[in-house]
């Protein structure tokens, strides 16, 4: 798939020299600005599943003939209809944004296209039935940034998602892309680059939150003939799709972050490891690598400086544990993805024994912005301990689901109520599950907790990669804990005993409770076992797998008691214990 | 859940000493795949992905050829193949149905979707219908959480499903096949 893709007519001449990126940007910006009206059709996985490609086709046909005949270099850029990555508001898809003015059309079907064009021609606005309507006030919003879902967000890492055409590098360059790379290569030393990332207080967005600058410094330190940069795109947490949306919507930001990391740590090769369940992300990344090579921002001599950097794409084969960094290294080496003991850390001995820097997709996609907009600016967005913003995949039992970016320190309540629009009619929010199978369930009374690595840890949950699933009164918390444990038990690689046997034992107990055969001693036994698994497992999978159980025991113990003592599931979700049956 | 091995793994057949099963050289397309990996002991995962891309599953014979041609122990190939969920050891049905078991889908009732699909097809997960029209699998998360609950049939994503709609969807695909064959 990767080698057979043709780059097509967009190969371009390689950019060389300190100002080449800037000149290219000015040229593309002008070309784009000359297009009087553009339809940006969301081609993220959510909208494509909803039929956005048919809308794209209908719009293309309806606007055929409007393409201004421009010179060769502008071909494609002047098209009135383009695809973009995920706009984030997946629940209302397929989405089309009309530029200039950023007018948002929701739920667009091919048959709406004639109406849309007519309305724009006569009133300058999309027709009423395509506008987003606030479910509470009934008010219609025309511009995207007036919609509450978007208005309450600060989109930094996602600033290109839904705006650029992810399959055309020129739209990335027109938005300031690869300017950070040029700045690093021509104006800064590797030490400066690492220093800047440290100043930004960027922490790893994959879950553990290790300071990124420090990780780069540690990888750079040991003497070695070669080093590697790995982008971890093995987003395995069920209910999380932040990384997928970034890889699909802004693949060049990920590559630019990797090239900068390579320059900083002295690596000349990088790998992007993507789940095979994300075929569109693989396709877009492969295309981006080809384009970046053709434009000279990647390859034997990046921007003509002599700095060489190659990027390979590796598809995962379906194993949750391969998101763990040592397991990921094994997987790239073509082995079973079983983790190994650290130290030595990958920064000391990683891929093929060489010092290796492993960063998450979101982390790397944020790096270029730290250089174009300033480390202090980025640091200023967050809290005392962690700078910047975090992307969350907001799903579950709420009105507005989708991709959400907020500064660290924002309260969960703000995300759930203002951005998510709160519970569905007639229901109420009971809990928020944050951090996926490694995270925890927090009750509604803790919604004022700020999303910050420290504060979340104190509640027993973790920041995790950014999955945020809202549960309402119809969700059984015991069943949810059982669900997560059945996932981690299934995905445990089996190498270490606590994880292999401990998760099985815990799952067995939880299954018994949800079947109505719980015993009075079960909650205490579960808690003891959970703590043992946490403290003795080999890798992060086992060490965090009991978190959903521990937090549920801590905050929803009465639901356990109801299942055990009165054989009753308060939410009515456990089939064996249907409501009213005692 | 529950059983240790959730996927059917093939039993290696007893050696028959009448003739070498690999006496013939591999088919040219398999040979081409193997040639691309010659000398690359690191790439077992990618190799298996190529083989599965060609056949739709991992035929035992192809793995035996790979072991011999690339001088990798068959045990190692087999160990890698059984570790990852992607690899299948029996030919898939014409339409592979994947039921998403992600968190958002779980909260939206995907377990009921799974049981009603199993009932409608008369098979369990990781099995294929006798006519080889459908295979049923589950997947940890497809990442279309806003469309929960989601299933994928072949390449088509169907979102916001209810167990009642499963029957209609399956019928659509059955008709599609009938039309092609008519």
Largest interface: A-B, 55 and 40 residues
- Count of separate DSSP helical elements of chain A: 23
List the uncertain runs of chain A. Answer: 1-9
Strand content of chain B: 5-15%
Average pLDDT across residues of chain B? 87
- Please describe the biggest sheet of chain A, giving its number of strands, its sense, and whether it closes into a barrel: 5 strands, mixed
Radius of gyration of chain A (Å):
25 Å
- Please bin the fraction of helical residues of chain A: 40-55%
Structural class of chain B: alpha+beta
Give the termini separation of chain A.
57 Å
Elements of chain B, N to C (H/E):
HHHHEHHEEEEH
Q: Tell me the distance between the termini of chain B.
A: 41 Å
Shape category of chain A? globular
Description:
The complex is a heterodimer of chains A (582) and B (182). Chain A contains 23 helices and 15 strands. With 582 residues, chain A is α/β, with parallel strands linked by helices. In chain A, the strands form 4 sheets. In chain A, strands 12-11-15-13-14 form a 5-stranded mixed sheet. Chain A has a 4-stranded mixed sheet with strand order 2-1-3-4, with helices on one face. In chain A, strands 9-8-7-10 form a 4-stranded parallel sheet, sandwiched between helices. The radius of gyration of chain A is 25 Å and the shape is globular. Chain A starts with 19 loop residues before the first helix and ends in a 17-residue tail after the last helix. In chain A, 58% of the residues are buried. A 5-stranded mixed sheet of chain B has the order 2-3-1-4-5, covered by helices on one side. The termini of chain B are far apart. At the A-B interface, helix 2, strand 11, strand 15 and helix 18 of A face helix 2, helix 4 and helix 5 of B.
